[in-house]
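Case study 2.
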Amino acid sequence: MPLAFAALCPIWGMWRRKACFPWSLLGVAITSFLVWSLIGKVNASKVVAYNVSGWRPPWGIQIRIDYMGLLMACLITGVGLMLLIYSWRYIVSEIKEERIPYYYTLYLLIFTAMLGFSITSDLFNFFVFMEIFSITSYALVAISGERMALRAAFKYLLMGAISSLTVLFAIAFLYSATGSLNMLDISSRLKSTAYLPVASVALILFIAAFAVKSALFPVHVWLPDAHSIAPSPVSALLSALVIKMGVLGIFRILFTVYGHSFSGLSSTWNSIAGVVAWAAALSIILGSVMAIIQRDLKIMIAYSSVSQIGYILLGITLISTRGMAGGLYNIVAHAMGKACLFLVAGIFIYKHGLRRIENLRGIGRTMPVTAGAFALAALSIVGVPPSAGFVAKWYILWGCFQEGQYAFVIVVLLGSLLSAVYCFRVVYYMFFTGAGRPGVGLDEAPFTMLAPTAILSVGTLFFGIFATLLLPSLNNAARVLLLK
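Prediction:
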């Protein structure tokens, strides 16, 4: 559905540029309805599968929507819809008018690719969708045409191209060992294959490549420039959703394709999971430290993404049901919280051209809703109850205790403390310094920008208070995966 809308969007742009937004909104809304209609039909042990053109796997391509795929698809459509609505007023001030049809076309393409990446069961299809969202993300970073944007996009392109080529090599190695491209078929064949060394090399290549996509330390260096220089809705899209595709890639390879119970691969699997866990721990600390020393609001939020990805991957690789449930829940918490923070930064730029943190003194008095949304999302990023971020970090800590990983307990607690330093510093400047602007009343952004920002911030609180809507299913999904 979104691919069809993307193909026709440039035609609408040739006729009337203003028609691109309602056309894109219609496509995303229809797709969201179709995705959400699957809620209740998929759970931790039940999937929805479709064989494209009637060809059964492993010969044909299969669309397979399991619980993880549905979770990601709902997140992509929900957050993606909010970011598209926000873009309507914002993007006109950020890019040239003739580039507006390109923006909405690219937005629909990246939306399509992330959905396809989430639900495909074919490894080569997995690669194709990854390439589509990667290439469109480079273009979205550079869409303003400014020198710094082009440089950031080129840096992103260089690292992204290398990681994509690494994934292609890994698929080739795995295909040579198993003779299949279907993920579940590969998983069954790995139990008896004689080419375990080749499969082990493929595993290492997969994890290294998806570590770049997810901006895991130390291959995160492309992220701060790309996320801070891109238009704010693009920054939110990259942070909330695109880097989660890297996390999903690691998750699929570790648990769907390989699994930790293969006798011939268990030592390699456990070693890789341990390396990812320690890299995630370093990401938590170093990402937070780098965020603290920043003076530009968007760069600070970008480095915070490096830290929060660390929490997600640490939870997933703890090999604990509670830890994995916490890591998966943090995907939801981070997507809403970080998208909200970038949208707030975009409002400050849109209304007043403000990017530096010290220039936000007293702005909470003239923009209380915007500043309040930032404060609410910051509570989730830090992990203060009753936010969604608190629930996620609590479960990650529980998983650390389950596995006796007390060093990781210290890392999680220290990371939360450092997060409080950089998040509450901004809140302090907005609400507790300066006297505001004399003679200026409320000065909020347009409703179409303010409403998505407020909804995402309230969402971090809603999914903290009503965590039982997701946690039982996430616990069951983790239990099923870890018993394989």
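Residues 364 and 372 are 7 Å apart (CA to CA).
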